[in-house]
Amino acid sequence: MKIIIYFLMFIIPSFAHSAGLLCHSSHGGYCQYSGKVSRLYVNGSFMLLYFDTQINSDEISKSGLVVTNTDAATLSIKNNVEFSKMVYSTLLSAQATQRDVQVQMFSEENGYLKIEKIWLAQ
What we know:
Elements: H1 2-17, E1 20-24, E2 30-35, E3 37-42, E4 46-51, H2 57-61, E5 72-76, H3 81-97, E6 101-109, E7 112-120
Parallel strand pairs: 5-7
Antiparallel strand pairs: 1-2, 2-6, 3-4, 4-5, 6-7
């Protein structure tokens, strides 16, 4: 029970209050973006989530991931259509309501960080 209370009091709020892109070498290396949806680009093949803050490539290098495009994260629509629809609707909702979104990226695709998990802040 104490572990659950600790998680609710300290871990979850840390996600809500962090801003920008933070990268870590743990868990195989990953990056997490927390902030507003600056722009959202979608075509028939992929979507791009543009970050609202300037991303430092030194921060990304902490994860061990190698990316050439640091202004956005991507998701291939064709690889998982249903997940892509959910991510797109979540990003649109975040943008429309000016709420923060949290996105985790554990790999790269086409030179961008690849979106793999998403949360919508309150």
